[in-house]
Predict the 3D structure of the following.
Amino acid sequence: MMSQNRAELRDRFALENDYKINPKPDSRSAFARKIDHLLRRQYNRLFEIQQIQIELLEELGPKRKS
């Protein structure tokens, strides 16, 4: 029981320190924003590639049936 109390106290202090360091938990670092930007670009590019693949498959589809 005492160890649980110490763990709770330690966790509370850690949360308080985190808040002092970063009072806005939703504020993001420049690094996180850059990663998000790169991921968004990558997803967009993958979507473009999938669209091209779909178009190519559609072109091949009728030729196979003939």
Remarks:
- Residues 30-65 form the longest helix (36 residues).
